[in-house]
Design goal:
With 135 residues, the protein is mainly beta. It contains two helices and twelve strands, in the order βββαβββββββββα. It is globular. Bound molecules: thymidine-5'-diphosphate (TYD).
């Protein structure tokens, strides 16, 4: 239905006594052309972000700092991914309902996206989302 396309991406990790380093390159690690990045931070305890799906946009989500959970639902199955490593990316294709919760203090979510921002690309009505997945 969609969740089988979700992929866990292990990014390079250069361990160093002076501090570790990770990176990503579009052509090596990202399964789409990068059009945008954004980040989520200063999330008050107990808050939930997201609660929508995208028609077109695909994303890689990384917990650069702290931790949070990504709850994905493709209309059939729900799956929770706990992100807490800065070298681990979760690829979420379009057409998946998602929200983010359980943000730790100082959590920093970094998102690499395949499209420029467009409010029209959002589906925020879960019932409508479900009806579309059944077509
Ligand atoms: P939104 O994606 O709706 O956040 P959430 O899904 O957590 O509710 O984004 C919140 C606001 O920020 C919304 O008004 C749109 C704006 N926004 C941009 O202008 N550009 C962006 O790249 C993103 C992700 C959001």
């Amino acid at each position: 239905m969609g969740l089988e396309k979700v992929k866990e991406i292990n990014l390079p990790k250069i361990l160093d006594e002076r501090g570790n380093l990770s990176f990503l390159e579009e052509t090596k690690h990202i399964p789409f052309k990068i059009e945008r990045t954004y980040w989520i931070y200063d999330v008050p305890g107990g808050e939930v972000r997201g609660g929508h799906s995208y028609y077109e946009n695909e994303e890689i989500i990384i917990a650069l700092s702290g931790s949070f959970d990504i709850v994905l639902n493709d209309g059939m199955i729900q799956k929770v991914f706990s992100l807490n490593r800065s070298y681990y990316g979760l690829y979420v294709p379009n057409g998946i309902w998602r929200h983010m919760e359980n943000f730790s203090t100082n959590a920093l979510g970094f998102i690499v996206a395949s499209t420029k921002f467009s409010a029209n690309d959002y589906e925020r009505d879960f019932e409508k989302y479900l009806s579309l997945t059944k077509k």
